[in-house]
Amino acid sequence: xxxxxxxxxxxxxxxxxxxxxxxxxxxxxxxxxxxxxxxxxxxxxxxxxxxxxxxxxxxxxxxxxxxxxxxxxxxxxxxxxxxxxxxx
Length: 88
Hints:
single chain, GIY-YIG_endonuc_sf, GIY-YIG_endonuc, GIY-YIG nuclease family protein, alpha+beta, 3-stranded antiparallel sheet
């Protein structure tokens, strides 16, 4: 199972990725461990999906990346994939 996530920085630059552990991924991006995001930190989590299959995550990530500069379309896709978060 994978989680699709969107990070945003102060300049409203977005990074879209998939992971199994979102919190660890955000920490890694903010430590500068990823070449592509190192120069643009700090990052904060803007959105995450619930865990979905690897294939679904790949499709959703591609769809989000295709529309990441189109804020209304990006918001619509995020809303379509908004799942109730489990309450512990």
